[in-house]
Amino acid sequence: QEVGKDSIAGDLEAVKASIAGDLEAVKAPIARSEKLSAYNSEEKQNSMEAPGVHFPAGDLQNHLILDISVNMTGVELAVDGRQVYSAYNKTVPWAGITARLHAGLHLITLHQSTGQVMRATSYMTWQTNTDRQFIKDLEEIQDSRLLVILGAPDFTAFMEEETIATLEDMGAHYIDRMAYMDTWCLLVYKGSGVVLEALTTSLPQHNLTKFDVSPLTVRTVVPRMQEHRCGWYTEEGMQERATFCKIYEGYGTFCICDDPPWSPHPHN
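C-alpha cells predicted for O-linked-mannose beta-1-2-N-acetylglucosaminyltransferase 1-like 34:
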C-alpha cells in the first residue's frame, strides 16, 4: 500500500509539472504578444512624430507635421499626413525639348494655426520676368502666415537679383548659390524668421555632362501659431469680409489690419 501511495504521489507530481509546463508554454506567447502590441503602439506614436523629435503625450496638437517632396517629376506637400498641394508631371513639347511646367518656384501659404492652405501659386522662373509676380504676391500676404517656398528643377534660371535679395531678407542662406538643377525649400513665418531651409545638389546621370534633379525629402515639425485677429473683424457689416480674410490669403490691403481697412467705396 505504501508503495502504491508513493506511486500515486509521483504521478500527481508529474501531472502538476506537466500542467505547469503547459501554462508556461501558453503564457510565453501571450507575453510576447503583449510586448509586440506595446511595441507596435509605441512605433505608431513615433511614426506620427518627425524623426529624432519626441513630444510629451498630447503635445502634437500644438504642432503641425509637414512632409515636403521635390524631385524631377514635381513637388508635393502634406500637412499632418494629408496631401494639401501637389504638382506632378506637367510637361509639354517646347522648342524641340520637353518642358517641365511644374519647374520653378512654388509658394504655398498655410494658416499658421490650422495648417489649411490659404493660397498656392507656382511661377515658371525658368522664363524671364516671371519672378516679378512672385515678389508681388509675397508683398500681398499678411504677416505671421506660414510660407512654404519650393524650388523645383531649374528654378534659378532667370531669377533676378531683386528676388534673391527678397528671399535673403526673409532669412534664406543658400538662395544666392544654387546651381542648375538643385532642389530647395524654405519654411518661414512671414515677418518672424525662418523655420527651416533645405537643399540638395544635382548629380550627374549616365555621363558627366547630363544632369538631372536630385530629390529632396523633408519631414519637419513646426509650432502652431495663434492667429492675429484684426480689430475690424467684429465691426458691424464686416463679418463676411473677416471670414473671407481668415480663409484666403494674398489680397493685400483688402485684408490688412489697418483700421479702417481699404474699401472700394470712395466715401469710406
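Residues 229-268 form one domain.
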